[in-house]
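Example record

Each entry pairs one chain with its bound ligand, S-adenosylmethionine.
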Amino acid sequence: MLEETIRRELHTSNAPMTFKRFMQIALYDPKDGFYTKHAIIGTRENSDFSTDPENYSPCFGASVAEFIGRYAAEFSSDALQLVEMGGGNGTLAVDILDHLQEYFPRLYRRVIYSIVEALPRLAQRQREKLQHHPSARVHIGSALDVSFTHVNGFFLSNELPDAFPVDIVFSVRSKGLHRLCITEVGRTLDWKYVPVQDHETFSYLKSFGYGDDLKQLPGSASIRNVFTYGVPVNLDMIHWYRSLAGKLHTGAVLTFDYGFMTTEEHLFASEQSRESSVRVYNRNSSDRPTDLLKGIGKRDITSDVNFAILKHVGHQSGLTDIFFDEQKEFFLFFGAAMSEDNNFIALVQGKRLPPFYRG
Ligand SMILES: C[S@@+](CC[C@H](N)C(=O)[O-])C[C@H]1O[C@@H](n2cnc3c(N)ncnc32)[C@H](O)[C@@H]1O
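Structure tokens for the complex follow.
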């Protein structure tokens, strides 16, 4: 039971547990974490969450393959490396490779496709799904620590940084920044608000525009308000992007996720719609963050990505923008069209494929 794991860790450290550590355990504990044990990734019915590669299959993969086809012509190297991180069911990988094989056969023969997946259970599923593409490899490991260097090709991910464990930081009136933590009261786990002291978190908030505009909460703020007005501090995302940029020799980093284009948009959304940017899901429907300490490991926890941060870090690390827009625009730009009844249709060199997305 994860509650026991957390309690043990609290006793050993004799200090409150950060939300980031809590999220790490709840999602990725090797025995009872949500992704290890429960998560069913798929289309809408009977899954814990539906993801774009499944719902837009094969449109999503086809558009990515068209993107790769367009830019790969600029590469001089023989082998073209495609490194996907956090592959889920392996649907995106299969759709990309199927499309390259059919429409870019010469390029396909140069491709080495690798998935870096944290969880053995999902890695196994990806291997099974990729059997008909012999060049594809699945490595168990972390995207935060990919072993590939001098990559000539593309780093890809869909809905990965939203699944990185984050801290939740908020401002308490006249008492400064606090971080959401977990502690034990009697035999029960409970929330605790702890002052922020580390330089990295202060600098994250300041650098990315969260300074003085944060809502000032009372010291007795409800946990619901902490989730609504708190900022997810995704330090792993920064380290991840910096390290990818450093490992890329020629090519691009393709990141698909949901969230905000700017910090202003994020602050405006929490003020206007009072929607938390750290969300909890239970069997595909939104759950109350207040229930998080019950049934730990049975719910998904995700946080909105602030793309302004990714762009900033990318630019600092020497990357330049090729395309920055909504996913639908990416589809439309790189190979799909909209039919009269609002379905996506793949267009390959002017040829229409059958509709593949309804809804
Ligand atoms: C939200 S799911 C998205 C799956 C897939 N990309 C999709 O869109 O269907 C997140 C995926 O990332 C994996 N993952 C999470 N953290 C990871 C990490 N640090 N390194 C590699 N994979 C990770 C999870 O196991 C899961 O496969």
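The pocket of S-adenosylmethionine is lined by residues 35, 41, 51-53, 85-88, 116-119, 122, 142-144, 158-160, 163 (CB under 6 Å).
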